[in-house]
């Protein structure tokens, strides 16, 4: 039995305990900030699919809905709590685990043990990992390292890289210096994308506990695991929620396949020398900026001084003309661009000067 247990423990899992996103069917990232769990269905969805669903709801002008079960999102914590209790009554192990984790964060360990026990009995991998920490810290239960290691092993067998890293650290530093077992745990965890395990392998390589071939294989497997979680939708979701104060438009991604408007392209050229912003800003900020340029330009146009000579006009034109052309905006009050407006203004002044000398030349000048 011990040999079968060891063989099962050190078998490479097909995927992590998180599995794949049920919508795009790509492996979920180990980073908890790159996925979300809805209380309505207790299903973990990657940020890429959530972002695509948000764009679809926004385009359809309807209330935001869960991308999996299509139920409208909750609007309060009380409503989310009611949804979790509904899932618990339905026997959802994820709901039991979430309730147990919430109680543990609130330091209500008796309730945490109750719900995590039910989730672990249903085969929830994260619940086993949580139980390992409870037994290790003596929270709600009597401190017992053997039981803690047992639950961590159950979680590692289920594909939990974090629990496997803890087992490796325990074998390497606290369990009698069992470096061979520790290296096996670290290699498996690193191949699942765990960064801490990879760093430990590098340290053990410096100490001569890991061979160069083992480290190279772990590096390749780690990179492959990380790359498998990437997609264009997830990359787009990583650039949302740009603060309005940074409103410098660098790329237009308000809607899928949207082409930047003429005004958006103009504002992007105006701000090309400004601080770059890697995140997506809304077109509403762009419209406000264009409106500001138009109002400012209109004020300047109304205050055009009455020039009495061509030389003074040329000096004013040289300073003012470049400012307007750099902004590249449209003067609504005239209906033409700044260059045509200044040209017509120039001709009018020349005509007025010529009319003083020879009134017959006025019509030809205009």
Question: What can you tell me about this protein's structure?
Answer:
- The protein is mainly alpha-helical and 366 residues long.
- It is built from 17 helices and two strands.
- The protein has helices at 2-9, 47-60, 77-89, 93-105, 109-121, 125-137, 145-157, 161-174, 179-191, 195-206, 212-227, 232-237, 262-270, 283-302, 310-327, 338-357, 362-365, and strands spanning 35-37, 44-46.
- It has a two-stranded antiparallel ribbon with strand order 1-2.
- α5 (109-121) packs antiparallel against α6, α6 runs antiparallel to α7 and α15 packs antiparallel against α16 (338-357).
- The longest helix has 20 residues, at 283-302.
- The radius of gyration is 33 Å and the shape is flat.
- The model is unreliable at 242-290, 299-313, 320-347 and 359-366 (pLDDT under 50).
Strand order of the largest sheet: 1-2
Q: What ranges have pLDDT less than 50 throughout 5 or more consecutive residues?
A: 242-290, 299-313, 320-347, 359-366
Question: What is the makeup of the main sheet?
Answer: 2 strands, antiparallel
Order of helices and strands: HEEHHHHHHHHHHHHHHHH
Mean pLDDT: 75
What is the helix content?
55-70%
Q: Outline, from the CA principal axes?
A: flat
Give the helix/strand class. Answer: mainly alpha
The proportion of strand residues reads: under 5%
Through-space gap between termini: 104 Å
Number of strands: 2
Q: Rg, please?
A: 33 Å
- The tally of helices reads 17
């Amino acid at each position: 039995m011990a040999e079968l247990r060891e063989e099962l423990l050190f078998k490479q899992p097909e995927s992590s305990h998180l599995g794949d996103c049920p919508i795009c069917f790509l492996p979920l990232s180990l980073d908890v900030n790159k996925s979300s769990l809805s209380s309505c269905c207790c299903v973990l969805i990657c940020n890429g699919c959530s972002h695509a669903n948000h764009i679809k709801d926004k385009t359809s002008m309807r209330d935001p809905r869960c991308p999996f079960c299509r139920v409208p999102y909750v609007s309060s914590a009380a409503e989310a709590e009611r949804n979790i209790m509904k899932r618990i009554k339905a026997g959802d192990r994820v709901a039991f685990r979430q309730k147990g984790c919430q109680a543990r964060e609130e330091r209500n360990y008796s309730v945490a043990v109750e719900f995590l026990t039910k989730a672990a009995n249903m085969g929830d991998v994260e619940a086993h990992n949580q139980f390992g920490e409870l037994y290790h810290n003596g929270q709600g239960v009597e401190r017992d390292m053997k039981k803690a290691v047992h639950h961590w092993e159950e979680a590692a067998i289920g594909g939990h890289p974090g629990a496997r890293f803890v087992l490796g650290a325990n074998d390497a530093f606290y369990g009698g210096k069992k470096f061979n077992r520790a290296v096996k745990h670290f290699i498996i965890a690193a191949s699942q994308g765990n960064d801490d395990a990879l760093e430990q392998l590098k340290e053990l390589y410096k100490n001569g506990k890991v061979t160069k071939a083992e480290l190279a294989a772990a590096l390749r497997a780690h990179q492959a695991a990380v790359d498998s979680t990437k997609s264009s939708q997830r990359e787009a979701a990583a650039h949302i929620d740009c603060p309005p104060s940074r409103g410098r438009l660098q790329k237009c991604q308000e809607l899928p396949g949207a082409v930047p408007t003429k005004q958006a392209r103009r504002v992007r050229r105006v701000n090309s020398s400004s601080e770059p912003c890697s995140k997506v800003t809304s077109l509403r900020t762009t419209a406000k900026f264009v409106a500001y340029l138009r109002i400012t330009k209109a004020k300047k146009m109304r205050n055009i001084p009455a020039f009495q000579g061509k030389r003074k006009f040329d000096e004013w034109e040289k300073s003012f003309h470049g400012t307007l052309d750099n902004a590249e905006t449209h003067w609504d009050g005239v209906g033409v661009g700044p260059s045509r407006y200044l040209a017509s203004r120039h001709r009018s002044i020349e005509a007025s000067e010529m009319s003083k000398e020879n009134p017959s030349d006025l019509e030809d000048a205009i």
